[in-house]
Structure formats: C-alpha cells, structure tokens
Amino acid sequence: MTNSDGGIGRGEDRAGEGTVNYRFIAAIVMVATIGGFMFGYDSGVINGTQKGLEAAFDLGRLGIGINVGAILVGSSIGAFGAGRLSDRIGRRGVMMLSAVLFLVSALMAGAADTSAVFIIARIIGGLGVGAASVTSPVYISEVTPASVRGRLSSVQQVMIISGLTGAFVANYLIARYAGGSTAAFWGGFPAWRWMFWLQAAPALLYLLALLVIPESPRYLVVKNRDAHAHRVLTRLFGTAEADRKVAEIRASLAADHHKPKLSDLIDRTTGKIRPILWAGIGLAVFQQLVGINVVFYYGATLWEAVGFSENDALLTNIGSGVLSIGACLLAIGLIDRIGRKPLLLVGSAGMAVTLAIVAYAFSTAVTAADGAVSLPGNNGVIALVAANLYVVFFNVSWGPVMWVMLGEMFPTQIRGSGLAVSGFAQWMANAAISVSFPALAVSPGLAPTYLGYAFFAAVSFFFVRAMVHETRGRELEQMQG
Q1: CA atoms 388, 391, 392, 393: torsion sign
Q2: Structure pTM?
Q3: For a disulfide at 454, which of 28, 68, 349, 356, Cβ 3.0-4.6 Å?
C-alpha cells in the first residue's frame, strides 16, 4: 500500500513524535540497496562469461579487455551524470532510471550477436551501475540517523558483495548444469548468455520496489518543497524532529539559496577547489588502485592462469564472495563504534601486506613442458589464503567505508556535485586497473602487477592519515567543505 508521499503504507509503523521509525528506515534502506546488489551482479557476471565471449566473438586478449571494461566506460559517465542529475530529478528518480538501464542491459547483453552490440549493452549497464553506486549511498545517508548512519550505509557494500557472489553462484550452477560456460543451456542458447539474462529478474524487482519509497527529504528542501520534506521526515523521525531538521537543512544551504551547481566545488574565498573534494577523489581512486576489481572481474581467469581448473576457479570465487560478506558484516558492527578512519588505516596496512605475499607466491610460478602453469610446493595455498585475507581486509574497510564517507562527508549544498566528481574518478581508476590487467598479467607478469597494487595500498595508509577526517556521529548539516 502506498500513500501520497510515495512511501510504504503507514499502518502500525507510523512513527510517534520524537521517535525514530527504525522499521520504516530499514525497509527503505533495503530497497535502496537493491541497487548495490545490481551493481555487484552486473560487475561480477562477466567473471564466468569470458570463454563464451571469446568463442562467440573471436576475441583476443585486447578484445577481452575491451569487452570486460566496456561497463566501466558507462559507469564513469553514469556516476558523474547521476551526481548532478540527482540534484535535478531526485535521488529516487535516478535510482529508478538505473533500474531501467539494468533491465535493458541484461536482456541486450545476453542476446548480443556481435562484440559491438555486447559492448553497447555493457555500457548501458555501466550507466546503471555508475548511477546506483553514487546515488544509493547518498540517499541512505540522507534518510538515516547519525548514530547508525555508518552501519546502515554499509549495507550497500554487503549488497554489492551479495550481488557479486550471486553472480558467481549463478555462473557456477549454470556452467555446471550445462557442462561449461560455452555449452548449450535452456532453449539451445549457450550458458554464458543465460548468465546475463538471469539478472533481469532482480532489475525488475528493483524498479518495482522503488515505487514505494519516499524521496530524500534533503533533496526536497533543496527544491523548496519543505512541506513534502516535513511529511517524509515526520515518518522517519517524528514531528518535533522533522521541524528541527527542515530548519537545519535549510540553514546548511548556500546563503543566497541558489540551486546546487558544479561551481560550488570551488571555494569562493580562495578561488581553489575545496579540500574536501580532493579527499573524496583520493578515497575514490585509492579504493581502485589496490586492485580489488581484478579479483572481481578476472578471478576465474586469474586462478586458471596459475593451475586451477575452471570448476575450482569458479568455486574459489564463491568462497571469496562469502568471506567478503562476512567482512562487510564485521564492518557494519564496527563502523559506528570505532569510526571510519581507523578502519581505513587497518585496511590499508592489511592489504599492503597480503598483496605483497600474493606477489611473492605468483613470482614462483613454473611452466611445465605441456604449457601448464602451477605454483610449486605450498605456494598455491599461500597465494589463495593471502588473496582471501586481502579480500577480507578490503571489505572490512575500504569496500564499505569509502562509499559511506562519500555519501556523508560533503555538505548538503555540494553533495551531488562532490559525488559526481568523486564517482567519476572512482570509475575511471576502476577502468584503468581493469582494462590494463590482461596485458599486465602477461608483461611484466602477475607478480610485479600485484606488487604494484601493494604499493598503492601502502600509499593509501599515509593518504588517510593526512587527508581524511572522521565523520562518525556527525549530522550531515555539520559537515564542513
């Protein structure tokens, strides 16, 4: 049941004055984070389809890199466009648009008969991924209390990893049932095509679920729809708190009450880019320079390259996904207790060490007379354990915390613009790492490549110490630019 506010029917969940309606908040957070699930699924589904793409479109290493990386072109554009578009049509409006893009991409990618059509389909999906990646965290941060904002915003990363793991599981089951990713499946179509078509179901669910949640009250105030914002805030926090928050949001906007614009990112006093934007860009870029999406996009190919079978490689992906979800749940329990910055520092240090160990293990790889590659002695186990510890360190820190901070660290006036630029930088870094990996894996090789990721993880530790300020427990209207 819906009401005129675009929200879930009030019923017995209606918040009383001075109370926080946690049931309502939890419901709309879960709907918003379906976008994270789609983000993860759309990013991870490519992992098990590369043999099918190579066979169907006669692709070499460069071709595989372009087809895999196509989503990132759309994602960078989608992230930049969504940040600004969310200031025009609303946070919910952008999420609904991203749901439509996910649906179109799933159907089109599975049906593609040429590499060009597939690339276009993946760019369309990337637009949805980019839009969801920056809009969902902002929306969640704008409808949740400061005391639990970190843990509720972290649900986004849990859903991203759940989407990735869901894609890994679906790929594994479809390939196993069909007899391989290139074998015929339902309707005589190759299994890899069904791996893409399957994501149409959660995309449709996402679109329908978005119809029953309200728009962000902070966006509504920016658009001078204070009465509507007051109704939404009353449902979230009660009447008395709604009165106070509308006044606080209004006061936090620019003194001349102009609409948010990209030029707000430049400090009028100094004429320079605001320091908070550099911090946001740094967080976004370093999250990718540590190489996490090499695991997400090329996990199966990576493990096969060092001697794992296709079946074992896909199972390894699933194991990594389960560990990632566990790490994200740990982050949810810690982020509002010990803060964002300590988690980032621990994550940076842990990733630097574990990536260096993976690099060492890969440096010992040997090639047999028949061309088969393997890691001697216990080095295969060492590589697998270190890689999974790396995934744990990432998902207890930089995975969820980066998105939490980008969603909350910017003042209301520049939140959309700050997310647009930071999100664009994040996806450009993602593209650079992901598209370059197939070539780097050949020359200079896996070991030097992973050592490079370890270097960036170490540098990120010092960046956090110098540039990142703690935001735990602070109201959004208290954020300084």
Answers
A1: positive
A2: 0.74
A3: 356
